[in-house]
Design brief:
The complex is a heterodimer. Chain A is α/β, with parallel strands linked by helices. Chain A contains 7 helices and 14 strands. Chain A has a single domain, classed as Rossmann fold, CATH 3.40.50.620. In chain B, strands 7-11-6-1-4-5-12 form a 7-stranded parallel β-sheet, with helices on both faces. The chains are: A alpha/beta, B alpha/beta. Flavin-adenine dinucleotide sits at the interface of chains B and A.
Chain lengths: ~270, ~325
């Protein structure tokens, strides 16, 4: 059964970048910072592509942000997604607002499976999938993972970790939770948020990058969707957490042992 | 006014200790709003857990039903939402565990509330409570205001004490309505059992990274010598060397033990996000330039395969004397 798959891709600071807070605490210093697709969303895109490769269908990538988020949409198209949706919003975004916008996108697109990252690595909220599922009255499977490791043969073969049921009415998802792995079945349409061990995202190929330029991307102004865009998580102030004092080196194991026993008194 | 509802977590009739830190956070809010702390606990056969929770001086609402045996956000949400409404709770929270992070945003969505994740503390003044939380893998500390009548949150357990025992607690039965047809079904739980202490509760954590090349034997030995838990980096977990559940960092567990030993770990910001609150940090790495040394209290530039067995010998000799 072909699947209509909607994947979200947020533009975030590269996790390798050095993040510094502006002296007035109103934001972070963006000079010299690189941007890319949220790493968890790359995993979501990869999973979407694998599901499509197995079952047929379509992968739509949606991003909410300024024109600059077009780069992340193109990155997903270069990996193999079929078309894009850029919801333009040039104001503060939080999980309440993002899920309100995605709610409208889902209403219009009616996908069978919605794949999100489990968390954005800028605001680290880990909420949008859960909010979206509740808004639409859908089942949620957060922190999707799989039993096999990322070094396994199944991973080499690029099998999807999310398994469609024989009747095509639900998906089986293995969730990474405290103390182990939980398996759940979720009816379609389902909302799934992707964790790190679900897959290893592919790199875009050169032909993929060329093709991506010609794939359609619909641009929608957020204000036309009828969603409440008023921020609900209002950042009042940013600061740098206290730095830890460290950097002391010991010469050998004997000194380490002596310090731990005599100074730190840990044993 | 300003009542607080904390959702406690239990598994198979055992209370999760993280919940006690969440209750303490709830008490900190209630002290400012003049409200009361209520605790919800859901599951099947949870009478003993409910009684245990009441010993912390709080009103416990126990939802005990067969349909709640295995946690699902879809079955827990309506129960918690009804409780929150009935109690006039304006703050709804839990510990920032996999359970809390899955459930609280869904509950919040139904209550029209905004949520703050991994809360480290509170700001603002009086009943106007703001939330302090990490962003960008702990590189930034943010003070956020939730601009909704009901405010939801998950707290980072290492940043709050355990709630003190107190008098005046009681257990009430919470109503469990038939949730109707469910979009989600529980299939199974594959638990990874370990004889070692739980990572987030251990006094000592011994962690290994890619530098172990998959050989955790000596580190596990050191952990056992010290009664410690074992942790790991994402690199070690992704490779399948240790179970997922042992990942420390931005997207794994956050720990703050008395002693954290990092062996064969470079010290990426995402890993530091999960352990830099530790009291004493030891780093063993053969690269003197590894970033982990910048925050280690005791850095040892050495091959872990030589240093760790040597350290174990010293510890064993020390115990004998
Ligand atoms: C979105 C995202 C989320 C992430 N979340 C996490 C997270 O939660 N937790 C986490 O840990 N990482 C996380 N990471 C990954 C993180 O960026 C690093 O890649 C990872 O922590 C590196 O692991 P490592 O230190 O084991 O490996 P490496 O960086 O490869 O370091 C290995 C170290 O071992 C040393 N070494 C090698 N051999 C020896 C020896 N014989 N003796 C002593 N030392 C030796 C080397 O000098 C080196 O410093 C995340 C990354 C992203 C993008
Ligand atoms: N502005 C955005 N555009 C597209 N997707 C987003 C946006 N913000 C959040 N998401 C999605 O929601 C997931 C969880 O984000 P968060 O709840 O903010 O941590 C991310 O991994 C993305 O998949």
């Amino acid at each position: 059964m072909p699947l209509k798959i909607l994947v979200t891709a947020k533009r975030v600071e590269d996790p390798e970048s050095k993040i510094k807070v502006k002296p007035d605490g109103t934001g972070i210093v963006t000079d010299g910072v690189n941007y890319k697709m949220n790493p968890f969303d790359e995993i979501a895109v990869e999973e979407g592509l694998r599901l499509k490769e197995k079952h047929g269908g379509e992968v739509i990538v949606a991003s909410i942000g300024t024109d600059r988020s077009m780069t992340e949409i193109r990155a997903a198209l270069a990996m193999g997604a079929d078309r894009g949706i850029l919801v333009k919003h040039d104001g503060p975004l939080d999980p309440v607002v993002v899920s309100a916008i995605l709610d409208k996108v889902l209403e219009k697109e009616k996908p069978d499976v919605v794949l999100l990252g489990k968390q954005s690595i800028d605001d680290d909220q880990n909420q949008v999938g859960q909010y979206l599922a509740e808004r639409r009255g859908l089942g949620q499977a957060t922190f999707a993972s799989k039993v096999e490791s990322l070094e396994s043969e199944a991973e080499q073969k690029k099998q999807p970790g999310i398994v469609l049921s024989a009747d095509g009415k639900s998906v089986r998802v293995v969730r990474e939770v405290d103390g182990g792995l939980v398996t759940v079945d979720v009816n379609l349409p389902a909302v799934v948020t992707c964790d790190l061990r679900l897959n290893k995202p592919r790199f875009a190929s050169l032909p993929g990058i060329m093709k991506a330029k010609k794939k359609p991307v619909e641009e929608i102004a957020a204000a036309t969707l009828g969603a409440d865009l008023a921020p609900k998580v209002v950042v009042k102030k940013l600061s740098e957490p206290p730095k830890r004092q460290g950097g002391f080196k010991v010469a050998d194991v004997a000194e380490l042992y002596a310090k731990l026993k005599g100074e730190a008194k840990v044993f | 006014m300003g009542n607080v509802l904390i959702v406690a977590e239990q598994s198979g009739g055992h209370l999760k200790k993280a919940s006690l830190h969440a209750i303490a956070a709830g008490q900190a809010i209630a002290a400012r709003t003049g409200g009361k702390v209520h605790v919800a606990v859901l599951g099947k056969g949870i009478g003993a857990v409910a009684t245990e929770l009441a010993s912390f001086g709080v009103t416990v609402h126990a939802a005990d039903a067969a349909g709640l045996e295995h946690y699902l956000a879809e079955t827990f949400t309506p129960v918690v939402v009804e409780l929150a409404k009935g109690l006039g709770a304006t703050f709804v929270g839990a510990a920032a565990t996999a359970f809390g992070k899955d459930l609280v945003p869904r509950v919040a969505a139904r209550l029209g509330a905004a949520t703050a994740t991994e809360v480290l503390g509170f700001g603002g003044s009086g009943a106007a409570v703001t939330f302090l939380r990490p962003m960008w893998a702990g590189n930034v500390l943010a003070e956020v205001d939730l601009a909704t009548p009901v405010k939801a949150f998950t707290i980072r357990p290492t940043e709050f004490p355990v709630a003190p025992k107190g008098a005046g607690g009681e257990v009430k039965a919470a109503a469990v309505a038939d949730p109707g047809p469910l979009p989600t079904r529980f299939v199974e739980f594959k638990e990874v059992k370990s004889a070692r202490p739980e990572l987030t509760e251990a006094r000592i954590v011994v962690s290994g990274g890619r530098g172990t090349k998959g050989d955790f034997k000596e580190l596990e030995g050191l952990a056992d010598d010290l009664g410690a838990a074992v942790g790991a980096t994402r690199a070690a977990v992704d490779a399948g060397w240790v179970q997922n559940d042992l990942q420390v960092g931005q997207t794994g567990k956050v720990v703050a033990p008395e002693l954290y030993v990092a062996a064969g770990i470079s010290g990426a910001i995402q890993h530091l996000a999960g352990m830099k609150g530790s009291k004493v940090i030891v780093a063993i790495n053969k690269d003197p330039e590894a970033p982990i040394f910048q925050l280690a209290d005791y850095g040892l530039v050495a091959d872990l395969f030589k240093a760790v067995p040597e350290l174990r010998e010293k510890i064993r000799a020390g115990k004998g004397s």
